[in-house]
Amino acid sequence: MRHLLDYQEGERVVTFCLVKSKEVGVASNQSEYLNLELGDRSGTIAAKLWDVTPELKEAIQVKSVIKIDATVQVYRGKKQLVIQRVRLASPADEVLMESLVPVSPIPADELWEKLQQAVRGIKSETLRAIVTEALADEEIGGRLRCYPAGVRMHHNYYHGLLEHIVSLLAAAERLLPLYPQVDRDVLYATCILHDIGKLYELSDPIAPDYTTPGQLIGHLVMGAEIVSGICRKRGIPLGDPEVLHLKHCILSHHGDVENGWGSAVSGKTPTAVLFHYLDQIDSKMNALGQALAEMGDEEWAYAGALRRKVWRGY
User: Fold this and answer.
1) What is the value of pTM for the model shown?
2) Which residues make Cβ contacts (< 8 Å) with residue 54, sequence separation at least 6?
3) What is the DSSP string of 113-139?
4) Structural contact between residues 262 and 221, judged by C-beta atoms closer than 8 angstroms
């Protein structure tokens, strides 16, 4: 099966896709048109629908699943679609949502089992109880199996957050022997829970945007609040040293406050400092991997997470 990004200039595209963004424009003849960002599991592509009718303008919304008949054009060096015909998908089409969004290359069930193995390896009864309670929550567990780690920057695909967590746990396991001053159990718990607030900072796993609580509070503070809520439910004192350490690592994992990246406090323990750099490595390398994969035959490509162009190398 071919996906949106597989088509080349001049080819006809007849397929189902997801509307990721929509903007109404007015042409020189005063007719309205739509600038759309369409997506499937291969990625996203810009599209234009000229001379849009009022009915279509109303029907096509962000997160709509549509069937298009379009042609690929190249505009300013980038492919885009010019749509000739379009309709909303119906239940009879039986379109699988997983076919419409980029998905982690690692199956969710495989990632979930590795996550559970890590939880079982946490020796601290307090931290294991907190992590277990979080993952057992129907809403948290359900969202973790599908939510991305972000809107655009890294692991920005279906169950990308779960992949990010498991990758961090693997990196932590390999680095811990080098740094005996790091608290192993707090590091593991932080790997698992550091971005748990993103499950409420982001609106959904299909075409995520930032929720009002996400914009007003942010996922670091939301994550610490989730930990506090679990402690109250389980009767774990909020002043417990391991609880304080875990919340500190969550609240500081974006690095020094002076960087302006969103940390509530700068890292003040070896575990907090190490985790910040682990998170940076995994997020940046994932973003670079995506940029390189999308380069095609180009030698250079822009990597948004690094805010610079990157070189393929040889």
Assistant:
1) 0.85
2) none
3) HHHHHHHHT---HHHHHHHHHHHHSHH
4) no
